Amino acid sequence: MSSNLLSYIKSRQQTISTILEECHHHDFYTTFTSSALWPYKQTSKTLCRLLVLDSSFNPPTHAHANLLKKSLEAYPSQHFDASLLLFSTNNVDKQLTGASAFQRAQMMELMAVQQNDINIAVGFTPHGRFIDKAKYIQEWFKRKYSKDYDLNLYFIIGFDTLVRFMDAKYYQGLTVKEALATFFDTCRLICADRSLSSSDSQTRQSTFWSQLREDGYNEDIIKRIQLDPVPTVNTMYMNAINFFLRPYFEGYMPQQIGRNIVFIQRLSCPVKFFLQSVLNYISVKT
Predict the structure, then answer these.
(1) N or C: which end of the chain has fewer CB within 10 A?
(2) What's the angle, vertex CA 127, arms to CA 122 and CA 132, rounded to 5?
(3) Burial of 219 (0-12, 13-18, 19+ CB in 10 A)
């Protein structure tokens, strides 16, 4: 499919742009689904389990693919009915920088179509809090299916995000357990840890997890998975991504392409293939 990625993304530009323009005020919407029944594979089941990878995707990298892979492997085969690549246009902790929402939708879709044998979609929400994301995905699901169908959401998050999510200062007037009781009725968390070299950091992690388990959040509610190390990536290649995704690739000079090509090797396969197609295209044009 690598040779056709450039044509594919060009053919989808108008559709993606229209969806983003018409739905930007919606609480949750999809720009791409791999099947008409998504998130179901088939509707004979009343319970649907959806794995949610919520990230900035600026751009998609090996780390994103690894997160999805490791999370799927942490559960029995066929546990999940579908996966969702989710982007929040209003992040609680940081402003939108780098790639535009349109560019991210393109890159996320390219990542999605490369996930073989996964019922997957690309979704957007203006909400930054997990409680709100869950609420509006659930409302979208109930509108699409009858109330006889139930949806369980499994959010993949990092350790630092989990620490913030469980911090009592965000739930004034309530204990964490009280504030999150409704959330955990239909949601689960998958926390991705990395190996830490600092003994202080290791102690901090160990203390946090011990307290979490004492508070009753067992593996069924918050699962802990270990990730493989990935290379550190600097901001230069993010700029290269944004540069390459500009419509019709106008304004590029050959010397700029040579300067940025090294960063392509550090990207996830779908984006890497796409950018290689762009390079080939530009080489012919110039």
Answers:
(1) C
(2) 100
(3) exposed
